[in-house]
From TrEMBL:
Molecular-function annotations in GO: metal ion binding; peptidase activity
This protein's UniProt keywords: Hydrolase, Metal-binding, Protease, Zinc
Protein name: M20/M25/M40 family metallo-hydrolase
GO biological process: proteolysis
Pfam families, per the entry: M20_dimer, Peptidase_M20
Species whose genome carries this gene: Nocardia aurantiaca
Keyword flag Protease: yes
């Protein structure tokens, strides 16, 4: 199982790869993302085997070793194998959604978000070359100036806000847990859609739900303060909302930059958004288990803002659920890919229980 690297081991309470288990937590890189899930599945399967559970559906366990670097050699190949074998699954379960407390605006109960798809991913590289020369005679603009203007134009022209069917479904499912006036507003989603989209766009965490996001991430150019730069380049990362595409991102960038001499191309790996449009019966099964494990929660749908291995299996399953019933607050969410990643023993136990219940329910004829 792969995990993301650790930037600042000194900042951790316990060394990130020491596997420290104290009275309350299991500490380390991967404790949440995603070793806990693998081990919880294996624990649940071993338990079930020991107790003689015989599922009447085939259960495939597919653990990739390269998820954090896009999964082509792991999930990509496993999915290809399943596809060529003609396997078609009822239910695909993977990482993505969790149960959050104090994160969803205006909802006091914990919220379980079962993700039913994921956003797409694309990085655009902007590059410009100019004749160099002495900075005492710069001409009208330099490569750095042109590039800076292009990046600013992309940032100043975000993708439009759009309330997708999944976002509407998400809001509808949490509506009963909200207080007024939000509840009434959400009841009018058909007429108040644009208002709801604007409310969601007010915070980065929810803005990702209503638009293809734009993030200039890297910029470089020039070699010395008094030398005209001959080359400058920048990278802008986009997370693509269902309904937009990788090609739309590239077209958008070229259109808003309006600089014919600038090279604007896709860079590295891209993926289209993928989404399971229908929350089918097996969604309800997963939702019911979540409610059983943590009574009183709100259960809703969502879209994974990043990319997961599931997109390789998307066409192989009737229902897709990216979910684990671990309970995280805003600070815990930052530990994922961050410092002091850890999972509570209670959460880990609940995760094992979740997988066991899922196996038991699938075992019923
Ligand atoms: Zn990750």
């Amino acid at each position: 199982m792969d995990v993301v690297p650790v930037d600042d081991p000194e900042g951790w309470t316990h060394p990130p790869f020491a596997g420290v288990v104290d009275d309350e937590f299991i500490w380390g890189r991967g404790a949440i993302d995603d070793k806990s899930r693998v081990l919880a599945i294996l624990e649940a399967v071993e338990q079930a085997l020991r107790e003689g559970v015989r599922p009447c559906e085939t259960v495939y366990l597919a653990f990739g070793h390269d998820e954090e670097i896009f999964g082509a050699a792991g999930a990509g190949r496993m999915a290809a194998r399943l596809r060529s074998a003609g396997v078609r699954a009822r239910l695909l379960v993977d990482e993505g959604g969790v149960i959050t407390t104090g994160v969803a605006d205006g909802i006091d109960v914990p919220v379980a978000t079962i993700m039913v798809g994921e956003k797409g991913f694309a990085t655009v590289r902007l590059a410009v070359t100019e004749v160099g020369g002495h900075s005492s005679m710069p001409g009208r603009q330099t490569a750095v100036g042109r590039l800076a203007r292009a990046v600013a134009r992309i940032q100043d022209h975000p993708f439009p806000l759009r309330l997708t069917p999944v976002a509407v479904d998400m809001l509808t499912r949490v509506r009963e847990f909200m207080s007024e006036p939000r509840r009434t507003l959400l009841g009018l989603l058909n007429v108040a859609g644009p208002v709801a989209a604007r409310v969601l766009a007010a915070r980065p965490q929810t803005e990702a739900l209503v638009r293809t996001t734009t993030a200039p991430t890297m910029i470089s150019g020039g070699v010395k303060p008094n030398v005209l730069p001959q080359r400058a380049e920048a990278f802008v990362n986009f997370r693509i909302l269902p309904g937009d595409s990788v090609a739309d991102v590239l077209t958008h960038c070229r259109k808003v930059v309006r600089d014919k001499g600038m090279s604007i191309e896709l860079d590295g790996i891209t993926s289209e958004p993928s989404i399971d449009p229908s929350a089918g019966p097996d969604f309800d099964l997963v939702a019911a288990i979540a409610r059983e494990l943590v009574p009183g929660i709100a259960v809703t749908v969502g879209v994974v803002p990043g990319a997961t291995d599931s997109r390789y299996y998307d066409d192989l399953a009737d229902t897709r659920c990216n979910f684990a019933p671990i309970i995280l607050n805003a600070a815990d969410l930052e530990r994922i890919h961050g410092t002091d990643e850890r999972i509570s023993r209670a959460d880990f136990a609940r995760l094992i229980r979740f997988n066991r219940l899922l196996l038991d329910r699938l075992a019923r004829p």
